[in-house]
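Bug #77: duplicate submission created two jobs. Keeping one. Sequence:
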Amino acid sequence: MAWAIGSLSALGIDGWLLARAPRNALASRLGSIHDAQARALFHGHWNLKFDTLLLEAFKIDGKYQTYFGIWPTLLRMPVLAVTNRFDGSFTGPSILLAIVVMLIATAGMQYELRNLFAARGGNSHLDALPSRSTMIISGGFQLVIGAGSVVAFLASYPLVYHEMEMWGIAGAVASAWAALRYVHHPGPLRTVGCSLAATITILSRPSLGIGVITMMATLLLSAMLRREGIARVTHLAVAIAIPIVFYGAMNTARFGAPFALPLEKQVFTTGDAAHHFPGDPQRQRALAANDGSLFGLKFLPTTAVQYLRPDAFRFDHRFPFVNFPHWRARVFRGAVFDTLDRSSSITSTMPALVLLSIYGAAAFGRKRRTLSPSTRDGVVAIVVGGAAGSAFVLMFGYVANRYLSDLYPGLIVLSTVGLAALRSGHSAPIAEAAQLPQPIRTKRERCFVGVIAVAAVFSLWINVGLGVVYQRPLKPTDPDYGRGTASVLVGRSSNSSW
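Kept job's structure:
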């Protein structure tokens, strides 16, 4: 039950951050978007009021639509069907529920992967009782996943953006867990589980949903190459089609096309004279410079450097003694971005998971020939899916700390593989992998575990600290105040704290 203790500890930290988050009228109004969408669907249409959507409104044929996925809307509908007492107050509990789903799915992946690096000769870790050290590692891993990561930042403010990101993470990790369960014991019910998790993901965070679809397509390709039977191939194909059809139907109902996002029709871009809402000049410049789109390879050098650089934070004299960097991302090759918020990076805020991911990739590469084909295919699929889910945010002309969330599911997957390798080193010999004398190998393992432990403590401090910083109010007269969507929402600039 070590994973449960670590998970509950993380959930307690995230709950504390949510409980202390300042209340803001405009943020609460945007938080009611899903409530309004649910009530619109009750009446058989998708149209919303401008006063609900504000800058996130898309004006389509004289009606206002939103681009937010409907999974959080569906979660609200049973309650909203009987009462309006809780309108505008679902965002925080929804974020916590998504964190619970993510933590359970991560624990499930631990269970599925813990036998990957068992020693040869039949000593399966599924048959062995975990040692005290492996239990501590497992519980600590859950704590870092839930509170020593971008999750703490998302939990620090109950914004609709954070809710969508958090459900995207939860759905993507649940999809990876479902995929591992499927490859170990294929069957129709487990195929349904994969499809359900993929549907939740794409109806929450489409970019991560594409990653999950890619993961399932990789499993389908493996099944076809291995000639695993028409029934299994058909089940996987249908499982892939279901989330795509749901997303396409939702988008068509809103925008008239299954996969379009008409940024040129967003009120934030064009303005709305009827409601005295001006268009944003920088958004207009960015679209004009990029052929009407905010996606492209030209953004990749800037975003990759920003989200991977290890110095994307600064120490501060005020509690919690850490802050976001003063500088914004350095732009390469003259790319014109919509927004450059002050942002940290995965190496700065999640060093423990980054180190475990590197260890996991190396260990899997070393051990892959000893694994069963199904297990090898499963790990490859979830890694490919995590990479595909990360691709879109790296090609997006907008830098923001919350977009570390799109990189996070892939990091969770690889770090869980690393954890499986690390745990095997504490419960069974791995001489054939290291080819080193026992004393040197043991010393190296202990040193690495020590480094991970220090990095984990740092991860907890910096992520919870940045969450606390993000909650601080700033005024337009403050020197750090600047442009950014979150500055409009919470009365202070995300640029100042990102």
